[in-house]
Design a protein that fits this description.
The chain has 161 residues and is mostly helical. It has one domain: Tetratricopeptide repeat domain (Serine Threonine Protein Phosphatase 5, Tetratricopeptide repeat). It is built from eight helices and no strands.
Length: 161
């Protein structure tokens, strides 16, 4: 495990690094984007953005199966951590992060032509968050109207051991 950063990164630093990672991805600087998102995953393993960033970079490289795997890993990790074990700022966004990962996982599964699994992941996103960006993405992918609400579906996230 790497030594803690001194001084620790502040929220604004994390946001800046995340933005730089997505700018690098958009510019086709995939190696640099991967380095940034892997570093963010090390320091914020219980947040959605490092997994989504890595998956986006992989999708840009045409590595759809690898992107799906990263998102599945993130969903599994976040689903298995008790909210009470998270720092306050991460606990406050835990449900939203799970929903975002489920939505992006559904997208990746759809790109992998695994439609039934994609629909379950998108249903999970709607179950976790009835509105917000994750829900909007899930509804678009499912072809549902904006105000619709899906019921709970069997989770595609692996059961916690």
């Amino acid at each position: 495990m790497p030594a803690p950063l001194t001084p620790p990164l502040q929220s604004a630093d994390i946001r800046l690094l995340t933005e730089l990672g997505f700018v690098a991805t958009a510019a086709g600087l995939n190696r640099q984007a991967t380095t940034i998102f892997e570093g963010l995953r090390e320091i914020r393993p219980h947040r959605a953005f490092p997994y989504i960033g890595l998956a986006t970079t992989l999708l840009n490289e045409g590595q759809v199966e690898s992107a799906e795997s990263v998102l599945k890993q993130g969903r599994t990790l976040l689903a298995c951590v008790p909210v009470s074990a998270l720092p306050e700022d991460e606990a406050a966004t835990h449900a939203e992060d799970l929903a975002l990962l489920a939505s992006f996982h559904g997208l990746a599964l759809q790109l992998c032509a695994r439609t039934a699994q994609a629909q379950r992941a998108l249903g999970d996103a709607l179950h976790l968050q009835a509105d917000g960006s994750a829900a909007r993405l899930a509804r678009v992918m499912l072809g549902q109207p904006e105000q619709g609400h899906a019921g709970p579906l069997e989770s595609t996230t692996e059961k916690c051991a």
